[in-house]
Specification:
5 strands, Ferric Hydroxamate Uptake Protein, Chain A, domain 1, about 80 residues, mainly beta, single chain
Length: about 80
């Protein structure tokens, strides 16, 4: 697990914050070409049920890497998981 505090302007996206600390591979995983396909070379593979999941303040239901907007003190998590 990597934990790091980064400064981004209010209204930045979770993907913009992630890019401040990791190498990000963008691409369509499920539905949109702006999704996060990989982080630091760890690539999601829907055919194998492997994905990166985003949560903001513990909520992943409405979190979008390219549509969500961050506010001061938001906690963003990216979790790699296998859905088998």
């Amino acid at each position: 697990m990597i934990e790091k505090e980064v400064q981004v302007p209010e209204g930045a996206t979770p993907k913009q914050a992630l890019k401040k600390m990791c190498e990000v591979t963008e691409g369509k995983v499920c539905c949109h070409p702006g999704e996060v396909k990989g982080i630091d070379g760890v690539i999601g593979d829907p055919a194998q049920g492997r994905y990166w999941r985003l949560t903001i303040n513990g909520n992943g239901k409405d979190a979008s890497p390219h549509r969500s907007r961050l506010k001061a003190h938001d906690q963003v998590s990216w979790i790699y998981f296998e859905d088998k």
